[in-house]
Amino acid sequence: MSLSLTNSFVKIPATKALSAFGNSIISKRNISRTVPNHFFFGKKPEKFEVKRVEIPNATWKKGTPQKIPSGKIISYEPKDIFNMIKFTKGTLLSATTLVSTVSADGVANTAPFAFCNCICPNPPIISITVHKKPDGSLKDTQVNIDATKEFGVSIVSDWFLESAISTNANLPPEEDEFEKIGITKMPSSVIKAPLPAQSAVSFECKVVSSTTFTDENGNETSVVYNGQVVKIHANEEFYNNKTGEFDYEKFNLIARVDGHYSKINNIINVDFVK
Ligand SMILES: Cc1cc2nc3c(=O)[nH]c(=O)nc-3n(C[C@H](O)[C@H](O)[C@H](O)COP(=O)(O)O)c2cc1C
């Protein structure tokens, strides 16, 4: 079954827009901009309903090319893209996850990650990419993974979006982000790092390989860690392992879209492809 993203974006003056997790993202932008409409203070989020929708082009026949957008295609060298991180987030839509780690001294850490995906189902491998901080120093997540070779990945749903994203705070390594931000710890079974109890689904991973990337000057920019999934925790309210089905009406998944977020609130019926 395939998912599509809600298109609940509206144009509003930035001065009136405040995100639900403070103004850290929205206040950086000027005057008129596009934000998801559920991020306005004062506006109650509408009741979350997942719509089962029909395929968008029901009359399509195999062998017939579908719509090609009429706009002119402009080709860029990657270096000429205005902001490559922003561009990839806007096009290759990603989940919003919390990555948990623990330091060599046993201090728990968690941070939001969008560069995170399952890159192989067998064996199950989840990959996360940790970028260096703008000043070139290492994030606690990277220091901790290098020390322990382990990390946890937890899916973010809308009932704890604000606290999940607030773990983005740049706290010193000796401070426990779970405790400081208010994420409840749930013990892992195999790895040492705790997991957020708020999450409907968490994966415990052990690093099997990593790749370091450098920029054109040879400076290290990011490390991709591939972690083999060694344990999965799935709340039975959202996942039924007898049928393999997720209850998306309850799951309330959040995707990262450009600098914004989107609730996944409709599912396109693709039965016809069988
Ligand atoms: C939604 C969201 C997604 C993020 N995704 C990533 C990511 O994929 N990789 C990364 O290095 N930083 C990412 N960040 C930034 C880190 O969460 C941030 O640098 C954090 O402070 C790192 O914490 P740490 O020093 O405890 O590891 C993201 C931030 C947000 C809000």
TrEMBL record:
<comment type="similarity">
    <text>Belongs to the flavoredoxin family.</text>
</comment>
<keyword id="KW-0288">FMN</keyword>
<dbReference type="InterPro" id="IPR012349">
    <property type="entry name" value="Split_barrel_FMN-bd"/>
</dbReference>
<dbReference type="GO" id="GO:0010181">
    <property type="term" value="F:FMN binding"/>
</dbReference>
<dbReference type="Pfam" id="PF01613">
    <property type="entry name" value="Flavin_Reduct"/>
</dbReference>
<protein>
    <recommendedName>
        <fullName>Flavin reductase like domain-containing protein</fullName>
    </recommendedName>
</protein>
<keyword id="KW-0285">Flavoprotein</keyword>
<dbReference type="InterPro" id="IPR002563">
    <property type="entry name" value="Flavin_Rdtase-like_dom"/>
</dbReference>
<feature type="domain" description="Flavin reductase like">
    <location>
        <begin position="89"/>
        <end position="248"/>
    </location>
</feature>
